[in-house]
Structures are given as C-alpha cells and as structure tokens.
C-alpha cells in the first residue's frame, strides 16, 4: 500500500558537480575527475596505455581511463565517509566490499 507524500518535508535534493577531463598523448590516455560536493572537492586520476601492437582506437583508451578514474573516485568517497564516521565515534566495521572484481 502506498502512503501519501507528506507536504511538511520536501525531499532533500543535492547536486554534486563532476567534471571528467580526458587527454590523449599516444599511446597514453589520462583521465582526471574533479568532484565538487559543495562542501568538499575531491580529485582522482587514472591512465590507460595502448599496446603498440593494438589498433589505434582512442575511444577504448578513453573508456578505460575514465572507468579507472571513476573507480578511484569511488574509493576516495568511501574512504572519506569512513573517516567521517570514525571522527563521529562510529566503531570500525568489516572491510568494505571491493568496488571491482579481482580480475579487472
């Protein structure tokens, strides 16, 4: 059964700005992410390197570098949250679930 939405408390909406910058210097592609939460700014970097024997398809380097930088940003956010919880006196919990599979 659904409940009517209360008009007393509008939903909390936040907007975080994420900028992803890609630069290519064959055979390397570099991704830089800047996340502005309004309260903090976090930055992550990652690279992808094309094997010299592979075809030159820049889109693949972009995807790999961007994906790796997003994973790195996820790790930074989880680490920041854990630090904030510890600062508030929260007990340490089990190790967090990995953000990627061992084979990635």
What is the overall shape? elongated
CA distance, first residue to last residue: 42 Å
In the CATH hierarchy, what is the class of the domain at 17-87? Alpha Beta
Across the major sheet, the strand order is: 1-2-3
What does this structure look like?
This protein has 104 residues and is an alpha+beta fold. The model has no long low-confidence stretch (mean pLDDT 87). It contains 1 helix and 3 strands. The protein has a domain at 17-87: Rv1738 (Double Stranded RNA Binding Domain). The chain has one helix spanning 58-87; strands spanning 17-25, 28-36, 41-49.
In short:
This is DUF1876 domain-containing protein. It comes from Streptomyces malaysiense. This protein is α+β, with helices and mostly antiparallel strands.
């Amino acid at each position: 059964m659904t409940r009517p939405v209360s008009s007393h408390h509008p939903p909390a909406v936040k907007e975080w700005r994420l900028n992803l910058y890609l630069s290519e210097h064959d055979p390397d592609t570099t991704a830089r992410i800047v996340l502005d939460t309004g309260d903090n700014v976090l930055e992550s970097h990652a690279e992808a390197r094309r094997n010299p024997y592979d075809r030159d398809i820049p889109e693949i380097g972009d995807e790999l570098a961007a994906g790796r930088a997003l994973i790195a940003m996820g790790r930074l956010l989880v680490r920041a949250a854990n630090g904030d919880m510890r600062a508030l006196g929260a007990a340490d919990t089990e190790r967090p679930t990995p953000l990627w599979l061992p084979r990635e």
